Amino acid sequence: MEWIFEPWPWYVAGPLIALIMFILIFAGKDFGMSSNLRTMCSMCGAGKNIEFFKFDWKSQRWNLMVVLGAIIGGFIGANVLTEDPSVAINPDTIAILEDLGFNSAGEAYLPTELYSWEAIGGIKALVILLIGGILIGFGARYGGGCTSGHAISGLSNLQLPSLIAVIGFFVGGLIMIHLLFPLIF
Amino acid sequence: MRSLIYLFVGIFFGIVMFKSEAASWFRIYEMFQFQSFHMYGIIGSALILGIIGVQVIKRKKLKSIDGKPIVFNDKDVSFSRYAFGGLSFGLGWALAGACPGPVFTLIGAGYLPILVVFVGALIGTYIYGLLRNKLPH
Asked: What are the C-alpha distances in Å from B2 to residues A33, A42, A67, B7?
């Protein structure tokens, strides 16, 4: 059972994600995480002025339970099932990141240069994370889904729109990391 | 009772996201640098099994646990919304290093600055709702 405390390899994680999708399909639901963001906006009363948020959000309570579970799962994964959270990425990647100023590469789960209270206190990291979040939320709803909804669920059902969206995800990611990162960091 | 199933599915999902390191900013960066197979293996293996399973469900006309036919809704046909929306999502995914599922997982894992990304994502969703009628779909 020692393996469970180590990082799980892709050939364990991938099939488990497919299993999660099929459990939801057999429960009569769709696997998609970003739609919860719309639900949360509606819960906060965004439907008063904006048509898009006027819907029966209570019909999405099941997905909010998945969200609650994902939070609890993160707690268990980090605190019970992990001894050393550092992520052993490719040494070449570590070298590139160190050049950009990410000295926590290879030694942490998330870069402390962005994800620490110290970093957030300096305005730059705060703005970066906020803009990152806005792009994610805006893009997921505009594009009609995120990694779970398009790359896993949509492509599993051979949907051309999902393929367009996933290509968009990758083009966006490549632009960010190869063209914009050198300007930002 | 049914709620508990969703809760457990979520817990399972959160553990898988954290333990596979799909919730790690570093893994996302490494993926976009094409310097590891890890993330491609996760998404690719989930996808191959997903395609096979969906085909089996469709051909055998399998029913849900409530005994109802399983319906796969086709997505609306369009180019611009998927291309532009996808592009925006990809920019954010690479910058924050997290997609919506892992954002929730990381809150539970105790990396609380991720709450900034979460609030940003809510704002971004709200902005979409605000601008929806003016955007090309």
From this structure: 18, 23, 15, 9
Cα radius of gyration rounded to whole Å, chain B: 18
What is the per-residue pLDDT for B5?
A: 95
Closest alpha carbon to A27 in B68, B48, B72: B68
What is the chain A residue with the closest CA to B6? A66
The per-residue pLDDT for range B51-63, each reduced to its tens digit, is 999 999 999 999 9
Please give the model's pTM, rounded to 2 decimal places.
0.96
- What angle, 0 to 180 degrees and rounded to 10, lies between the N-to-C axes of helices B114-131 and B100-109? 150
- Centre a 10 Å sphere on the Cβ of residue A180 and count the other Cβ atoms it contains: 13
Q: Which residues contact A20 (CB under 8 A, 6 or more apart)?
A: A31, B9, B12, B13, B16
Buried b (16+ CB within 10 A) or exposed e, B59-88: eeeeeeeeeeeeeeeebeeeeebbbbbbbb
Per CB-CB distance under 8 Å, the chain B contacts of A111 are 25-26, 97
ipTM of the complex: 0.96
CA distance A69 to chain B (A): 4
User: Chain A: residue nearest B62 by CA?
Assistant: A26
- Helix, strand or coil, per DSSP, at residue B48: helix
Burial B11-20 (b: 16+ CB within 10 A, else e): bbbbbbbbbb
Q: Is B136 exposed, middle or buried (0-12, 13-18, 19+ CB in 10 A)?
A: exposed
The 10s digit of each residue's pLDDT in B76-87 is 999 999 999 999
If we measure between CA atoms, which residue out of A138, A126, A41 comes closest to residue B89? A138
- Give DSSP secondary structure letters for A122-156: SHHHHHHHHHHHHHHHHHHHHTT--IIIIIIIIHH
Query: What is the structure's pLDDT at A1?
Result: 77
